[in-house]
Design goal:
With 126 residues, the chain is an all-alpha fold. It contains five helices and no strands.
Length: 126
């Protein structure tokens, strides 16, 4: 992880936004979205227990690592299905930021469709 503050409860919120953005994709008959649905459910299972009142505490690093691994799979599926877009890519970047992996998120968000020229993208993280 890097020096950006971790916020698992907000990561949960971002994961819910990603799921909402992908809900129409899951309903498309022409795409095989079974694995996408499974990965979204897996991410929810890891993050949903944590909200503003329930932080992971000393298990934070383990929760972040587990959620980040699932988020990596999610990006691959978004890319494979060709369903990425700018807002989805931004949400992916925000998810990784909340989990403490901002630099990786900045790279993977592009694969999830974020516009590389977006004014919302952070300046180079050194």
């Amino acid at each position: 992880m890097n020096g950006i503050p971790v916020n698992v409860p907000h990561a949960r919120t971002i994961a819910q936004r990603i799921e909402a953005r992908l809900a129409p994709v899951l309903e498309r008959d022409e795409l095989d979205t079974g694995e996408l649905g499974n990965v979204l459910a897996e991410l929810a299972e890891v993050l949903n227990p944590f909200d503003a009142e329930n932080d992971p505490g000393e298990d934070c690093a383990e929760v972040c690592e587990q959620a980040t691994g699932i988020a990596r799979k999610l990006v691959v599926l978004i890319e494979e299905l060709g369903v990425g877009n700018d807002r989805l890519g931004q949400a992916v970047r925000n998810l990784f930021e909340c989990l403490g992996y901002a630099e990786e998120g900045a790279e993977l968000s592009l694969r999830a469709g974020e516009n590389p020229n977006s004014l919302l993208r952070p300046a180079k993280l050194d």
